[in-house]
Amino acid sequence: MAKQHRGEIVAAAVRKSGVKLSQLLGPLAISRPTLYRRFEDPNLSFDFIKRVGNLIHYDFGQDFRELSPAIALEPVVPYQLESLTDCKDKLLHVYALYAEMVQRYNALLAERES
């Protein structure tokens, strides 16, 4: 997967929003040249991206999965343990969820490095 140029994506969203750059400068506490430099930054911080999104009323979660709200894999249900076997089964289930999460995490790390 090609790496996204965060600054270009944010600049495009600002242009589409119709919000003038001068309206962003004060709330962001930066100058116009600094804003242009940020738009040129391929690794623009997600904190800055969120701040711009709030100002232009745009959800960058659709562009950056790192800003998407976490999705629960399954609803949290309190465990009622009836027996030692039941306890073992619940622990194995939780361990399987953990192992899957570790695999996804490692895949994301590998993707980021490439």
Q: How would you describe this protein?
A:
The protein has 114 residues and is mostly helical. 61% of the residues lie in helices and 0% in strands. It has 5 helices and no strands. The chain has helices at 6-17, 21-28, 32-39, 46-56, 84-113. Helix 1 (6-17) runs parallel beside helix 4 (46-56). The longest helix has 30 residues, at 84-113. The protein is elongated, with a radius of gyration of 21 Å. The N and C termini lie close together (8 Å).
Order of helices and strands: HHHHH
Strand content: under 5%
Tally of extended strands?
Answer: 0
Rounded to the nearest angstrom, the radius of gyration is 21 Å
- The share of residues in helices is 55-70%
Task: Classify the secondary structure makeup into a structural class.
Answer: mainly alpha
Oligomer: single chain
Query: What is the mean predicted local confidence, pLDDT?
Result: 88
List keywords for this structure.
single chain; 114 residues; mainly alpha; 5 helices; 61% helix; elongated
Q: Outline of this structure?
A:
With 114 residues, this protein is mostly helical.
Topology readout:
Layout (H helix, E strand, L loop, with lengths): L5 H12 L3 H8 L3 H8 L6 H11 L27 H30 L1
Helix pairs in contact: 1-4
